[in-house]
Amino acid sequence: MIPFSVSFDLNDLNNFSGNHIVRRYRDVKNVFLKQDPFLEKENPIIYEVFEVARSEREGDLTFLITIIYPGTVQGEYFMTKGHFHAIEPTAEVYYGLSGRGLILCQNKSGDFEAIPIEKDKAVYIPPFWAHRSVNISCEPLVFFAVYPSHAGHDYETIEKCGFKKRVFAQNDKFILI
Ligand code: PAN
Ligand code: ZN
User: Fold this and answer.
1) Are the beta carbons of 151 and 85 closer than 8 angstroms?
2) pLDDT tens digit string along 54-93?
3) Burial 139-162 (b: 16+ CB within 10 A, else e)
4) CA 14 to the chain's CA centroid
5) What whole-number distance in Å separates Cα of residue 145 and Cα of residue 143?
6) CB 3.0-4.6 Å disulfide test: which of 11, 106, 148, 157 passes with 90?
7) 61-68 and 72-73 beta bridge pairing
8) 156 touches 31 (CB < 8 A)
9) Measured in angstroms, how far is the CA atom of residue 18 from the centroid of ligand 1?
């Protein structure tokens, strides 16, 4: 691999040259507590990822931006599926670009943390911690992330056991339940 740069110009992501992953309501509805007939019909984009993953080799890094749109499913804020890294001793750094959110983190001993993210705040996700991002604001939550390219993603474990807490809107604030 040779050194390179890419543009994450949010006004011009149509020309983005990496992996573009789009998750619509029907792709992720199972992560929410309740279902929503209106969202089922409209099937809006809940979040999307623009990822630069040119290698899966140990030693390389993969980086991306995630955009989680504002909204709720019956009061539960829009969020990502969440995952462990398949190679568990791999960490990740998130860097907030706009909006406000929570990064839910949970390990296999059952420890749970909800770390706030916003513009210019960096969040460190240590090895062995599953992570899910939740948009608790009324604008898109946008963050940059970088992680080891060989990490891989394990979605199944968290699909089965879930996160300990969910994030709901209540009187213009968020509550963890
Ligand atoms: C992030 C996430 C991204 C989307 O790049 O993959 O925010 O979340 P899900 O993968 O849980 O759908 C990351 O943590 N990569 O390792
Ligand atoms: Zn990750």
Assistant:
1) yes
2) 999 999 999 999 999 999 999 999 999 999 999 999 999 9
3) ebbbbebebbbbbeeeeeebeeee
4) 20
5) 7
6) 148
7) unpaired
8) no
9) 15
CB of 148 within 6 A of ligand 1: the answer is no
> 81 in ligand 1 pocket by Cβ < 6 Å?
yes
CATH of domain 15-176: 2.60.120.10
Task: Among 22, 51, 80, 144, name the best residue to mutate to test ligand 1's pocket (greatest count of ligand atoms within 8 A of Cβ).
Answer: 80
pLDDT band at 12 (very low <50, low <70, confident <90, very high): confident
Q: Domain ranges for the chain, please list them.
A: 15-176
CB 90, CB 150: distance < 8 Å:
yes
Q: From the CA of 9, how far away is ligand 2's center (Å)?
A: 22
Query: What span, in angstroms and rounded, lies between the C-alpha atoms of 105 and 85?
Result: 12
